[in-house]
Amino acid sequence: MxxxxxxxxxxxxxxxxxxxxTPAEVWAAIDDLANEHKETxxxxxxxxKETxxxxxxxxxxxxxxxxxxxDMAEHLLTPNLTEKFKKYGFTFGRMGQNVSMxxxxxxxxxxxxxxxxxxxxxxxxxxxxxLRTTDIDDHxxxxxxxxxxxxxxxxxxxxxxxxxxxxxxxxxxxYAIRHGLYVIKPSGENVTIIPPVSREIxx
Length: 203
What we know:
Elements: H1 23-77, H2 81-84, E1 94-103, E2 108-117, E3 121-130, H3 133-152, E4 158-167, H4 170-178, E5 181-187, E6 190-194
């Protein structure tokens, strides 16, 4: 007859004594945390300075690129405009580029990318790479300044407005022609002019 083996229990082990933390160790840990915090702040400052430097350089590059794109847009869109506007009854004898009107006494400052002129009429053309509705609003405000400048200087000509761009969304084009502006845009290897809804609008 097999003899049943009795189960034996191991004596319970003693719990490890908890180590006491001395005040010196607490202050040392606080110093370590403070030093880590200072180092983190230093790294963040250096990272922020480097980020700001990169952003400044990027803005310079974008500014130069935008200027060059604008010059290219003017070169592509403004040639032979005097001939093209004959279709709409305008006979402009000359075209000036980067025309400025300044009257500090009356707080009038206006710059026009291209101005087509004759003795009784003038067409102020704003050239953009990508035309937006805010550009149209700005140009209308510019035309109002031009009108004010002309009135103050005895210029009785009728001023018309046009916008030209290499990229124009359909809704932006409609916004322009509804507000009395001619739209100049690429058409194949040439440019085309879209007249405003009402050709009786001038400034």
